[in-house]
Automatic annotation (TrEMBL), chain A:
ABC transporter domain mapped to chain residues: 8-253
UniProt keyword annotation of Transport present: yes
PANTHER family cross-referenced by the UniProt entry: AMINO ACID IMPORT ATP-BINDING PROTEIN (PTHR43166), L-CYSTINE IMPORT ATP-BINDING PROTEIN TCYN (PTHR43166:SF35)
Species name: Nitrospirillum viridazoti CBAmc
Name of this protein: Histidine/lysine/arginine/ornithine ABC transporter ATP-binding protein
UniProt membrane topology term: Peripheral membrane protein
Record has Ion transport as a keyword: no
Principal place of residence: membrane
Entry-linked SUPFAM superfamilies: P-loop containing nucleoside triphosphate hydrolases
Similarity annotation: Belongs to the ABC transporter superfamily.
Entry GO terms, CC: plasma membrane
Subcellular location per the Swiss-Prot or TrEMBL entry: Cell membrane
UniProtKB/TrEMBL annotation, chain B:
Protein keywords: Cell inner membrane, Cell membrane, Membrane, Transmembrane, Transmembrane helix, Transport
Single GO biological process annotation from the record: amino acid transport
Bilayer-spanning residue ranges: 20-46, 67-85, 197-219
Entry protein name: ABC transporter permease
Subcellular location: Cell inner membrane; Cell membrane
Boundaries of every ABC transmembrane type-1 domain copy: 19-216
Single GO cellular component term: ATP-binding cassette (ABC) transporter complex
InterPro entries: AA_ABC_transptr_permease_3TM, ArtM/GltK/GlnP/TcyL/YhdX-like, MetI-like, MetI-like_sf
Main location (coarse class): membrane
Membrane topology: Multi-pass membrane protein
Keyword Cell membrane attached: yes
Superkingdom classification of source: Bacteria
Length: 258, 243
């Protein structure tokens, strides 16, 4: 059995905001079909790390590759790392997609237009083909009957399901989820998690920053625990949620027990 | 009484003939100021400090001085500058309508740029990040994500500025332009019926502004997707209604 190729390789990612070091050297490799849950307390750097992966944040140190394409990061004359080729960075981002905590649908476009926007405008795919994909995605997330509605009219859960359809519309190699359920009430959390679980089951490569322990335990193939900007421990969920888990991660899971 | 109505009727007819002059000044300076303001807004968010400094200085100067002084400086002041007076530019600067349009373009662009700048800052970051995250850059991001939100945010204040501009066009009358106000003063000069004439002129400005504000409000409503009802319908097999 061959090991699937890496979809994402992040090496020694460091990032500081002012004097505060948020990421103190994190490396992560995601292979095709892997679902990686990134857990950690607030301020542990997990969202920042995720946002470095598609260059929404530029790391101070480190390398990122999607597939075998290196992210265009180079030092400027002050020695700071910056995006050296914004076109190449944009091309790299077209291989990924992101689902945000605050949904971030485009309010002036309908549900269907939101889903069709990137494949149509950025990837310049054929309109009929894009429409067919968008239709089947909206059906899949249960939002087909709302295709003509504007985002503001939808509930949070509905908006997030549309945002997931939008993320999948370009058929990305990697989907990044930045706390996708944190802005939802428990009822809506369930519908979004069920959808994410079905994506995981069809073999999507996903990196999920989340506080949903059940999702991390039951759905992900690997759990990464960040603490103070470092990978404190990582491994398959059976190990991480088992008896040999690191004390720090166990403490994180049940802070009240300490 | 009948003589009174006849007088107002004939004055109104004279004033109406001056409406195109007022509208011309408004249209030219409105369009030019908006284009210039767009450039100034871009400068205000430039990475290098020089464009930002130019935008701030422009706003400081043109927002901080009275429009009527700017009009006087351009019309009377530039006539004193030899290289303008005797150069090819004189053909433009001797024309009071041109001078009014130029002064209003400079002045109002400073205000409109501030409106656009505020609206740009108010475009939700998340919408822009969603655009960048799917690979949009530069012009596409501006056109497909930033501008639609920016226009919706800016429109109420922008409409207000256009209404203010309509009224400011009357300053052209101080440098001999025969716009609505200019003609009104001319009529008063030989009829001495001040109140009647100014009332008729005011009515025309009201009419212009009522029309403008109706149009701008209609545009605002048209762009306001939050008011749109939520249609529940299956996706049609083929699609036309995309933007």
């Amino acid at each position: 059995m061959t090991v699937p190729p890496p979809v994402l390789t992040a090496t020694n990612i460091r990032k500081s905001f002012g004097d505060r070091e948020v990421l103190a050297g994190i490396s992560l490799e995601a292979r095709e079909g892997e679902v990686i849950s990134i857990l950690g307390g607030s301020g542990s750097g997990k969202s920042t790390f995720l946002r470095c992966l598609n260059l929404l944040e530029v790391p101070d140190e480190g390398q990122i590759a999607i597939g075998d394409v290196q992210a265009p990061l180079a030092r400027n004359r002050h020695g700071r790392l910056e995006v050296s080729d914004s076109r190449a960075a944009a091309r790299l981002r077209t291989q990924t997609a992101m689902v945000f905590q605050g949904f971030n649908l485009w309010p002036h476009l309908t549900v269907l237009q939101n889903v069709m926007e990137a494949p149509l405008r950025v990837h310049r795919r054929d309109r009929e083909e894009v429409l067919a994909t968008a239709r089947s995605l909206l059906e899949r997330v249960g939002m087909a009957s709302f295709h003509a509605a504007y985002p503001k009219r939808l509930s949070g859960g509905q908006q997030q399901r549309v945002a997931i359809a939008r993320a999948l519309a370009t058929n990305p190699k990697l989907v990044l989820f930045d706390e996708p359920t944190s802005a939802l009430d428990p009822e809506r959390v369930r519908e979004v998690l069920a959808l994410m679980r079905s994506l995981a089951e069809e073999g999507r490569t996903m990196i999920v920053v989340t506080h949903e322990m059940a999702f991390a335990r039951d759905v992900s193939s690997r759990v990464v625990h960040l603490m103070n900007g470092r990978v404190e421990s990582s491994g398959p969920p059976a190990h991480m949620f088992g008896a040999d888990a690191s004390p720090a991660f166990r403490a994180f899971l049940s802070p009240a027990a300490l | 009484m009948e003589e009174h109505l006849t007088f107002i009727g004939s004055v109104t007819a004279q004033l109406v003939r001056a409406v195109p002059v007022t509208l011309l000044i408004l249209a030219v300076s409105g369009v030019c100021a908006t284009v210039l303001a767009t450039g100034l807004t871009a400068m205000s968010v430039a990475r290098s400090p020089l464009p930002r400094l130019i935008q701030r200085t422009w706003t400081f100067l043109f927002r901080g001085t009275p429009l009527i002084l700017q009009i006087f400086m351009i019309y009377y002041g530039f006539a004193m500058v030899p290289w303008i007076r005797h150069g090819i530019l004189w053909a433009a600067f001797r024309d009071p309508v041109f001078c009014t349009c130029l002064a209003m373009t400079c002045c109002c662009s400073a205000y409109i740029a501030e409106i656009f700048r505020g609206a740009l800052a108010a475009v939700p970051r998340g919408e822009i990040e969603a655009g960048r995250a799917c690979g949009m850059t530069g012009f596409m991001l501006l056109r497909r994500v930033i501008a639609p939100s920016l226009i919706r945010i800016a429109l109420p204040s922008y409409s207000n500025e256009i209404i203010m501009m309509t009224k400011s066009t009357s300053l052209a009358s101080t440098i001999t332009v025969l716009d609505i106000t200019g003609v009104a003063q001319q009529v008063i000069a030989h009829s001495y019926r001040t109140l009647d004439v100014f009332c008729a002129a005011a009515a025309l400005y009201l009419l212009i502004n009522a029309t403008l504000s109706t149009l701008l409000t209609a545009l605002e409503r048209r762009l306001d997707v939050d008011r749109a009802p939520t249609p529940l319908a299956p996706i049609p097999p083929t699609l036309e209604p995309l933007s």
